[in-house]
């Protein structure tokens, strides 16, 4: 099993070895998720400390509520830490402490796209994450395949290059093939796909 590297130092032209039967992408190797884990865990510990002080002050109900909130943040951090995506002959499998979801490989490279977003806590920092279009027209986030930086355009170009690598590997392995079939997104997330078309054209891709 090959653990996919998402480090910035990795050249875009680097190809995933075809000899690898499966790829594993771990959230713990992604700066975006690591930052969220640290923030969630730190806030959880802070709430637990405050909850203990409230208990000592004799306010048991309030202390219990604050402690529960702290435990919830710690649990959220643990879920983020456990997130990973496995890509193999059986499809794309996203898993965490909450369970596993299995999805088939898309019938076209257009079944992968990059979602861009601005940071909420740190407005200066932008983010991007990989998305998968399901056969039913749904959009599923690929756990752990995300990036942070200052330039949305650069992040999306980096994400699309990473998806190109994964797609080329999957085609070479015979896990999928390019059929030219384009699946439209349905519902509120259709806007994500529409926003992505201009960026695909800008980096030299065609989306029918």
Notes on the protein architecture:
Strands 1-2-3-4-5 form a 5-stranded mixed sheet. Helices cover 40% and strands 23% of the residues. The chain is elongated and about 65 Å long. Helix 1 packs antiparallel against helix 2. It is of the alpha+beta class and 208 residues long. The protein has helices at 31-56, 60-82, 152-173, 190-202; strands at 2-3, 23-26, 84-88, 91-96, 99-103, 112-118, 126-133, 139-149. The protein is built from 4 helices and 8 strands.
- Give the overall form: elongated
Beta-strand percentage?
15-25%
Q: Give the number of DSSP strands.
A: 8
Mean pLDDT: 78
Q: How does the major sheet shape up?
A: 5 strands, mixed
| Helix fraction bin | 40-55%
Q: Structural class, please?
A: alpha+beta
Spatial order of the strands in the main sheet? 1-2-3-4-5
Q: Write down the secondary-structure element order.
A: EEHHEEEEEEHH
Radius of gyration of CA atoms, rounded to a whole number? 20 Å
**What is the rounded distance between the termini?**
34 Å
In DSSP terms (H or I, runs of 4 or more residues), the helix count works out at 4
Give the low-pLDDT segments. Answer: 5-13, 202-208
Brief rundown of the structure:
With 208 residues, the chain is α+β, with helices and mostly antiparallel strands. It has four helices and eight strands; from the N terminus they run ββααββββββαα.
């Amino acid at each position: 099993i090959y653990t996919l590297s998402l480090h910035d130092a990795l050249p875009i032209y680097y190809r995933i070895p075809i000899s690898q039967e499966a790829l594993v992408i771990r959230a713990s190797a992604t700066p975006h998720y690591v930052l969220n884990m640290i923030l969630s865990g730190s806030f959880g510990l802070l709430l637990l400390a405050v909850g203990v002080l409230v208990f000592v002050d004799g306010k048991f109900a309030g202390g219990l509520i604050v402690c529960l909130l702290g435990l919830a943040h710690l649990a959220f951090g643990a879920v983020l830490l456990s997130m990973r995506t496995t890509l193999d002959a059986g499809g794309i499998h996203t898993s965490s402490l909450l369970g596993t979801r299995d999805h088939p490989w898309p019938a076209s490279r257009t079944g992968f796209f990059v979602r861009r977003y601005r940071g909420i806590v740190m407005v200066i920092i932008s983010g991007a994450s990989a998305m998968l279009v399901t056969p039913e027209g749904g959009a599923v986030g690929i756990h752990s395949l995300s990036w942070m930086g200052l330039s949305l355009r650069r992040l999306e170009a980096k994400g699309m290059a990473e998806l190109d690598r994964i797609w080329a590997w999957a085609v070479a392995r015979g896990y999928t093939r390019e059929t030219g079939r384009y699946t439209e997104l349905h519902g509120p997330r259709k806007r994500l796909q529409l926003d992505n078309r201009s960026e695909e054209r800008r980096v030299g891709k065609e989306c029918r």
